[in-house]
Write a sequence for this structure.
C-alpha cells in the first residue's frame, strides 16, 4: 500500500474540486464523466464573456487545445491568467502542438502569457513546446517518439531539464510516463498500450491531473504522479474486464467505470512508479 | 397501471416528434440518443442562418445554455420566437444560471423575449431565474438547495407560485422533482441519487420533456410529469442492471438503454408521483 | 471469402491512414472511435487558420455538415480545395441537405468548388443534391425515400446517372445501400434497421469510407463498397451480441466494438453485395 498515492486519491474524493475545462468537443463528454468518476465536478465554459467568472468559482483550470479556434484561444488566455492570479492550478494540454503553426503558436503564446502549474502531452507535443517548433503526426504520438524503458534515465533528464527551464510540472505520457517539477522526476509504469486505441484518454488524464493538483496543492508533483498512476491503473483494471467481442468502445466505458470505482486503497495498492 | 402516464409515453412513440435542440456540446450525443430511445427524433442546429427554418419543420424546441456563447444566444432567441409563434412547445434548460452574469443575463433575456412553454432546471438555477440573480456551484445543484421531502409542501407552493408568475410550466429537479403549471403541482419520486454522478441526465431530461410536450399538447402538465417519471424510472431500471465493476459510464449507457426499452405499460406501472 | 473486400479492409489496417474530419459536434466522438477501431487515425480540426496544414499531413478529408455554421463552412472549402489539390480523397456527407436553405446552399457550393472524390448521404440528401433543392425531415431519411429492394434496378440507374453527372462516387444509404462511380454500381445488403435508432452511424460510415478510400486509392469504388459492407456487417455482429435489457446506447458501443474486432477475413466472409 503506497500511502502517498492513497492520500492523493482520497484528497480528490474528499475535496471534490470543481474543475473548469476549456477543452475540445471531441472528447468533452468523456472528460466530464471521468472527472465525475474521480469525485471531482466538471464545468465546461469557453466564452470570453464568462470564463473569468467561471474559473473564479472553480478550484482548477484545464486548458486543452484539441479543437482550438480563434474564438476559444482568447478565452483560454483570459481564463488562464485569472486562474493563475487566484492561485488555482492551471494545466495545459497542447493537443497536436506541432501539427500546425496555429496550434504551435497558440501553445507557445499560452505558455508565455499564463503561469501554468503543469503541462501534459505526448512526446511529440512536449518536444514541440521545448523546441518552439516540431512535427506531429496528427494528435497521436509519433511511434518514434515513444519513451523506451531503455533510455528512461536520459528521457527523465530531458523532462527534468524542461520542467526546470519552464518552471512548471512537465508530464510526458507514452509507454512509460515521466513527470517532473524540475527537481525530482517520477516514472509511471501503469497503463495499457490498448488505451491509445481510444480517443480521449489523454484528455481525460489532463482533466484528472488538474483535479488531483487542485485537491492536493501542497504536494503537486505527487498529485500529478498519482493522476498518471490512476489513469493507467484504470486502463489495466478495465482491460481485465474485457469479454470476447468487446472492443475499443466498451474499453472506453470500462476505463471510466474503473475510475469511478477506484478508492485511495485501490490506487495505493496498484500504483507502479519510481523516482528516477 | 397509471393510464395517464401510459398515454403520454405512447404519444411520443406514436407521434415520433422531431425535436430541434440548441444544446451544449458536452452532452449533445446523449441527448440525441435519448430522444431516439424515446421514439422521438433529434435535429441539432445552432446557426443563426438556419435555426428558424429548422425549427419550422420540427415539432418542439429545446434550448439549453450549457455551453452558451455569444453566437448561439442569438440563434436561441431567433429559434425560440419562431417556434413559439408556430405554437410549438419551447423549453428552456438554464444550465448554470447563476454561475456567471452572462448565463444569468442570457437566461433572463430568453425568458423575457421568448414565450416558453416550460423551464426545467435544478433548484439553484430555478431560484436564479426567480430572483433574477443567484449563486450556482458550477452546473450542479447546491447540496443545500436539494428539495427535501420534509418541506415538500412548501417547495411545491414556491414552484406553483413561480409558474403562475412566469405563465409557464416550471420543473425543478432534485431528490424529488416538482412540476407545476401555476394551478396544479406534481411531485415525482422516481430516480436514483447516482444519476448525478453522470453528466447529462438533466440535459437528456429537458429534451425528453420537450418531446413529451410536443406529442401531448392537450395535457401539457401531465406530459411534463411523465417525462420526469420516465427519466427517473430509467435511472432505477438501469441501476438494477448494474454489475460489480460497472461505474458511471456504464450507468449512462444503461439509462439510455432503459429509455429505449420503455413502453407506455412500463411507465404506467413504474411511475411514482402524486399531486400536491 | 471475398478477396476484394478482404484486401480493402487489410489496406486500412496496414496503411493506418490519418483522416482529417471537419464534422459535427453531435457524433464526433463516435466518429473518432470508429476510425480508431478500423485501424485509421482521426484528426479533428475546423479552424480556418489551420485546416490546410492539417489536411496536408493527413491522407484523406471527411467533410460533414451536420452542425454547419458560417465559420466552419469557410474551413470546409479551404480544406477541401487543399486536400483535392494534393490528390487526397475528399468525401462530403451532406447531413440534412434539404432541411434548410443554408444547408442546401452550403452543400451545393461545396460540390461546385471542391473536387470531391465521393459523396455519401441518405436518399433525401442525395436527391436534394441532385435537384439542387428538396425536402428533408430533419437529418433522418424520409421513410418514403427508403430504397426498396423492388425497384433496386431503377434506383441503381439513378445513382449511376448522378455519379456520372457529378463525376464522383455517389453512395446512397438506406435499407439497401447503393454506390456508383458512374460506370459500375454495387448494391450492399449488410446492415440492420435498428442502426437508424442510434445517432451517428451515418457519420461514422462517412469517416470510414474516407479511410477506405485513402488506404485503397487504386480501387476507389471497391473501397467505398467495402466501407458500406463493413459498417453494415458491424451492425449485424453487434446486434447478435445484444442481451435482454440492452438498448440503443449499448448497441452504439457494440457496433464500434465490432469494427475494432473486424479483420479482412471477417469482412471477406460477411460482406453481402452484388454488382447491379
Amino acid at each position: 500500500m503506497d500511502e502517498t498515492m492513497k492520500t492523493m486519491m482520497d484528497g480528490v474524493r474528499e475535496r471534490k474540486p470543481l474543475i473548469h475545462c476549456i477543452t475540445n468537443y471531441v472528447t468533452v463528454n468523456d472528460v466530464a464523466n471521468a472527472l465525475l468518476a474521480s469525485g471531482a465536478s466538471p464545468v465546461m465554459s469557453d466564452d470570453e464573456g464568462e470564463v473569468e467568472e467561471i474559473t473564479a468559482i472553480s478550484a482548477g483550470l484545464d486548458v486543452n487545445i484539441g479543437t482550438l479556434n480563434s474564438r476559444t484561444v482568447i478565452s483560454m488566455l483570459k481564463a488562464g491568467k485569472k486562474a493563475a492570479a487566484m492561485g488555482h492550478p492551471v494545466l495545459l494540454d497542447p493537443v497536436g502542438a506541432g501539427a500546425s503553426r496555429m496550434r504551435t503558436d497558440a501553445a507557445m503564446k499560452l505558455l508565455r502569457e499564463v503561469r501554468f502549474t503543469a503541462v501534459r502531452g505526448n512526446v511529440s507535443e512536449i518536444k514541440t513546446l521545448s523546441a518552439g517548433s516540431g512535427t506531429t503526426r496528427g494528435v497521436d504520438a509519433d511511434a518514434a517518439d515513444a519513451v523506451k524503458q531503455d533510455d528512461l534515465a536520459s528521457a527523465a533528464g530531458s523532462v527534468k531539464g524542461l520542467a526546470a527551464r519552464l518552471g512548471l510540472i512537465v508530464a510526458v505520457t507514452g509507454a512509460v510516463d515521466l513527470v517532473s517539477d524540475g527537481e525530482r522526476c517520477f516514472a509511471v509504469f501503469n497503463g495499457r498500450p490498448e488505451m491509445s486505441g481510444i480517443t480521449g484518454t489523454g484528455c481525460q488524464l489532463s482533466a484528472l491531473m488538474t483535479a488531483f493538483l487542485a485537491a492536493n496543492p501542497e504536494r503537486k508533483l505527487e498529485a500529478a504522479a498519482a493522476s498518471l498512476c490512476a489513469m493507467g491503473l484504470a486502463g489495466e483494471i478495465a482491460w481485465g474486464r474485457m469479454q470476447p467481442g468487446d472492443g475499443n468502445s466498451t474499453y472506453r466505458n470500462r476505463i471510466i467505470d474503473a475510475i469511478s470505482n477506484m478508492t485511495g486503497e485501490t490506487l495505493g495498492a496498484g500504483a507502479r512508479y519510481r523516482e528516477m
